Amino acid sequence: MVTERSGRPPGKAAEILSTFTRYVAERGYDATNFSDIAGELGLSKGTIVHHFGTKDRLLAALHEGYMRRRLAEAKLMCERLPTPTERLAGLVSAFVLYQVIDRDATVAFQREFVRLADRDVMAEGRKMRTEYLELVRGVLNDGIEAGEFRDCDVTVQSLLIFGSAQWAWTWFEPDGPVTAEQVGAQLVALVLGGLLVRRARVTGLSDPAGRVARTVRACLAEVADKGTLPEAS
């Protein structure tokens, strides 16, 4: 898992958040408790409370950190990929790569996504998710205006894209016979095949060894190297 920092060396807060994230990925939020985290790390439950306050606040920190990384990567991809078509291909392929890069946080985020819906403590995470969604919709609109994508309902299309990736944690096997790059290529082909005015471009855009895929990998690695830990309460 990518460790995040906030201009200070990783310490107890980072260890607590990392362990909590792994437990949520493996067990779910309800089955994750401070006693197990404290026991594994050799801490008191009071130390966890000191850094994060409540379990909800730990979940909020997980969500905020996850979305902060995803936004940074998405913005970097959009800067480095010159056309809306390439940008969308990059964003879509990254959705699957997250199943192996930052896996614990991806599984934890996706399996507990519904908890973002109405809890006040999750407000910042919701805000960043909305920003990410609007970024993707902006790419779709740019593609339509540039004549690269056929005209479509951008709101519905964006939700279909997110929905197709949201449940990957339930079936994708990182050590299975099909790699994340191969699944990502198929998802890119599926999404762009239905959007592109010139469908012949799909093959190059979905190539796991192509320029788009290499750019995505480079952006993810760059953000991982810079990571920042969300502030604990």
TrEMBL record:
Keywords: DNA-binding, Transcription, Transcription regulation
Domain of life: Bacteria
HTH tetR-type domain ranges (all copies): 10-70
DNA-binding region(s), chain positions: 33-52
Gene3D superfamilies tied to this protein: Homeodomain-like, Tetracycline Repressor, domain 2
InterPro entries, alphabetized: Homeodomain-like_sf (IPR009057), HTH-type_TetR-like_transc_reg (IPR050109), HTH_TetR (IPR001647), KstR2_TetR_C (IPR041490), Tet_transcr_reg_TetR-rel_C_sf (IPR036271)
Protein name (database record): TetR/AcrR family transcriptional regulator
Organism, scientific name: Saccharopolyspora mangrovi
